[in-house]
């Protein structure tokens, strides 16, 4: 005698777990088990509780409670209200909009640290939870107690509800961090893979490139053991419980991408620079910076001095600047020179582990990168020793295959192959603050099953340095503005 809409809720992963608990409690009540112990057992261990009461001779069916006749107590009234609010919030958060905050400056000036934004999950089609047994409204970690907020007893295949658009070039996209499948238990912030590569390379006879190439696997394994011991082991996270990132999609499936001296080319065509793109520049001042000038940089030019990096002298500094800020600075009498600080391929010596595909012999930099092909679902590529490292992680970690290379011969799932057909679309994400962003240039492609939604609009923004109640602490000009 329950409402028919309960059937619909039972089809929603995550919410159905809560609804099943409610049904178990009401089933217990309908047999007269009203006490707290029975209610808790019905919620948490129904597979023990119900077999226990089945064989009791004095157990009788008393029927469902008619709440129209039976007066609800204070606790029951509030319990129903809170439960309904939780279910409604879970459904909204999972399938429509979810709130995020911007913790790092990787998307400045488009999105600032302290921006609170809503992410539209319906545009690309809401992703059905792959790990449905999770604590409502928590992501991967329980607040305060710092334990996992999910159970992996049940795992669902990747599935997405219909949306009204595919991911487009230029979209600000929220996605699960592709390299976030493995995290260090007591140091979950940095990328485990990036940290491991760094330790492995510098342990190979203090960065001996030739020795590292010959013994890469050995050094990586040693680095893994070192990090496990130092940080209390490693946690493996499912796809939908990886950390959430927000970047701009600059390349879609099927594109050919190349970066030449900081300029982005897609399919051979120079891309129009987004208005808020920042690059790193060397700014040479006529004199040492005074407090008054530092204040003027922030107020008049929107340049935060805290983002400054030393350039080698008291008058030469590095800043992350937009093209407009560069032009404005060049007009000032107290600025001697402004030049782009471009990382050339010749600068890449002993740094190949940093830049995707993270292997020695690669001389790409974040400013001179590629060309690469971004995989598209159904497309077949030739597998060679030259592109093996480019597509290895996509084929193995994201599409679930085994892959190994012996000389020029490639083996897929134990069989010799010369080509591979992709099962998913992939995307290339980059931060608008190009020189202060951990993005695809460091860890590669973003698979379609990692896409969460499109950053839609900013509903609140505050400057953490100034505080909520100081002038300029709340950025009123950004409240309820659309993400560009």
Would you mind describing this structure in some detail?
- This protein is of the alpha+beta class.
- Helix content is 26%, strand content 21%.
- The protein is built from 12 helices and 23 strands.
- It has helices at residues 5-9, 15-29, 36-44, 46-54, 74-95, 192-203, 209-214, 216-230, 291-301, 323-330, 388-398, 440-443, and strands at residues 97-101, 115-120, 172-176, 182-184, 234-236, 244-251, 256-260, 263-266, 269-270, 279-285, 309-310, 316-321, 335-340, 369-373, 380-382, 403-406, 409-412, 415-417, 419-421, 426-430, 446-447, 451-461, 481-482.
- Strands 1, 2, 3, 6, 20, 21, 22 and 23 form an 8-stranded antiparallel β-sheet that branches. It has a 4-stranded antiparallel β-sheet with strand order 9-8-7-14, with no helix packed on it. Strands 11-12-10-13 form a 4-stranded antiparallel β-sheet.
- α2 packs antiparallel against α3 (36-44), α3 (36-44) packs across α4 (46-54) and α6 crosses α8.
- The longest helix is centred in the N-terminal third of the chain and has 22 residues, at 74-95.
- The radius of gyration is 27 Å and the shape is globular.
- It starts with a helix and ends with a strand.
- The model has no long low-confidence stretch (mean pLDDT 85).
């Amino acid at each position: 005698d329950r409402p028919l809409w309960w059937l619909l809720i039972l089809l929603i992963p995550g919410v159905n777990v809560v609804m099943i608990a409610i049904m178990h409690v009401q089933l217990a009540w309908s047999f007269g088990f009203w006490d707290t112990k029975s209610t808790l057992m019905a919620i948490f261990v129904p597979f023990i509780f119900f077999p226990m009461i089945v064989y009791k001779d004095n157990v009788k069916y008393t029927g469902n409670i008619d709440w129209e006749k039976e007066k609800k107590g204070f606790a029951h009234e509030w319990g129903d209200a809170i439960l309904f609010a939780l279910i409604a919030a879970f459904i909204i958060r999972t399938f429509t909009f979810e709130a995020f905050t911007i913790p790092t400056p990787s998307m400045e000036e488009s999105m600032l640290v302290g921006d609170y934004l809503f992410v539209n999950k319906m545009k690309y089609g809401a992703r059905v939870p792959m790990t449905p047994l999770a604590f409502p409204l928590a992501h991967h970690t329980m607040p305060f107690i710092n334990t996992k907020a999910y159970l992996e007893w049940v795992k669902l295949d990747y599935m997405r509800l219909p949306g009204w658009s595919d991911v487009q070039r230029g979209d600000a996209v929220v996605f699960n961090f592709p390299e976030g499948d493995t995290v260090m238990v007591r140091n979950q912030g940095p990328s485990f893979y990036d940290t491991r590569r760094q330790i492995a390379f510098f342990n190979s006879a203090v960065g001996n490139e030739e020795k590292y190439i010959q013994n890469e696997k050995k050094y990586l394994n040693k680095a893994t053991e070192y990090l496990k011991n130092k940080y209390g082991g490693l946690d493996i996270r499912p796809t939908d419980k990886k950390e959430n990132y927000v970047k701009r999609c600059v390349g879609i499936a099927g594109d050919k991408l190349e970066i030449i001296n900081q300029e982005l080319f897609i399919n051979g065509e120079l891309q129009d620079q987004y208005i808020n793109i920042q690059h790193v520049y060397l700014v040479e001042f006529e004199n040492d910076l005074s407090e008054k000038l530092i204040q003027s940089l922030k107020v008049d030019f929107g340049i935060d001095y805290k983002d400054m990096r030393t350039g080698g002298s008291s008058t030469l500094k590095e800043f992350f600047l937009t093209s407009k800020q560069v032009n404005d600075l060049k007009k000032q009498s107290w600025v001697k020179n402004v030049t782009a600080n471009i990382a050339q391929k010749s600068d890449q010596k002993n740094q190949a582990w940093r830049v995707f595909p993270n292997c020695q012999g690669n001389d790409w930099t974040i400013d001179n990168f590629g060309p690469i092909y971004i995989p598209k679902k159904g497309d077949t590529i030739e597998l060679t020793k030259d592109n093996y490292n480019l597509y290895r992680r996509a084929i193995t970690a994201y599409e679930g295959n085994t892959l190994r290379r012996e000389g020029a011969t490639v083996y897929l799932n134990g069989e010799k192959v010369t080509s591979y057909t992709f099962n998913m679309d992939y995307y290339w994400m980059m931060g608008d603050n190009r020189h202060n962003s951990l993005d695809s240039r460091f860890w590669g492609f973003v698979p379609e099953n990692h896409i969460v939604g499109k950053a839609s609009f900013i509903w609140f923004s505050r400057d953490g340095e100034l505080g909520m109640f100081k002038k300029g602490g709340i950025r009123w000009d950004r409240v309820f503005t659309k993400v560009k």
